[in-house]
Design goal:
The protein has helices at about 15-25, 45-55, 65-70, 80-90, 95-100, 130-140, 220-225, 230-240, and strands at about 1-5, 30-35, 60, 105-110, 110-115, 145, 155-160, 160-165, 175, 180-185, 195-205, 210-215. By secondary structure, it is an alpha/beta fold. It has a domain at about 1-105 and about 175-180 and about 185-240: Metallo-dependent phosphatases (Purple Acid Phosphatase, chain A, domain 2, 4-Layer Sandwich). The chain has a 6-stranded mixed sheet. Strands 4-5-6-10-7-8 form a 6-stranded mixed sheet, covered by helices on one side. It starts with a strand and ends with a helix. The model has no long low-confidence stretch (mean pLDDT about 95). Bound molecules: zinc ion (ZN).
């Protein structure tokens, strides 16, 4: 079984399509698992929802999905995120709105707990520090955990008694028996200084996870964001991956 693991797609259709194409060329996949924030920021919420549903993706809700579907207010959002969430909410209706509103905060599959933020706070907590990683390991009821939210790809394990974050090396990581937290990085708005879309592939028979990056048509996404009146800052940052 091979799973394409994605997160923080953020209504970026060009990036999502590039990721799916790249994953298909690189050996294919049986399932898509998404760690939330399918929408928000970007110009194509409808098409991204449709593509995820067409692939029967296993998706948890992120903070942007919750705000857009009215399950939470935008008070904790910055002005750009709030503007994009409101714009997205105004566009979505019918089955697409219902799909977003029905996403769970947590899922378990193949020994992985899947959440957007962290096991103790699936909505807001960023797993980016040793402290947050340690708290996450303590809460885990499965050996493995998948998170999103920070838009930073990593593999985190306990090394010499303390959580250690390892950035992707380009080589598959063997999972083994030990507990692990993996962030596939962001498809639609990377923030690690690399503007290429980020994703990961879980290979169940090999017992590995591999991170990947793929280029997509950033100017096309930026043009649509400008045409649709989304904040210029959100379009500009895509070019820098920050
Ligand atoms: Zn996000």
């Amino acid at each position: 079984m091979r799973a394409l693991i994605v997160s923080d797609i953020h209504s970026n259709l060009e990036a999502l399509e590039s990721v799916i194409r790249d994953a298909e060329l690189g050996g294919g996949f049986d399932e898509i698992w998404s760690m939330g924030d399918l929408v928000g920021y970007g110009p194509d919420p409808e098409a991204c929802i449709d593509l995820m549903r067409a692939h029967d993706g296993l998706c948890v809700a992120g903070n942007h999905d919750l705000a857009v579907s009215g399950r939470m207010g935008v008070e904790r959002f910055n002005a750009y995120a709030a503007a994009a969430a409101t714009w997205t909410a105004d566009r979505l209706e019918g089955e697409r709105a219902e799909y977003l509103a029905g996403l769970p905060l947590r899922l378990e599959t193949h020994g992985f707990t899947a959440v957007h933020g962290s096991p103790r706070d699936p909505v807001w907590e960023y797993v980016v520090t040793a402290q947050s990683a340690r708290a996450s390991f303590e809460r885990l009821e499965t050996p493995r955990c998948l998170v999103g939210h920070s838009h930073i790809p990593f593999v985190c394990r306990i090394e010499n008694g303390a959580p250690a974050f390892r950035l992707p090396t380009g080589r598959p990581v063997e999972l083994g028996e030990e507990r692990v937290i993996v962030n596939p990085g962001s498809v639609g708005q990377p923030r690690d200084g690399d503007p290429r879309a980020s994703y990961a592939i879980y290979d169940g028979s090999a017992g590995t996870i591999a991170h990947h990056r793929v280029e997509y048509d950033v100017p096309a996404t930026q043009r649509k964001m400008t045409e649709r009146g989304l904040p210029a800052y959100l379009a500009e940052r895509l070019a820098h991956g920050r």
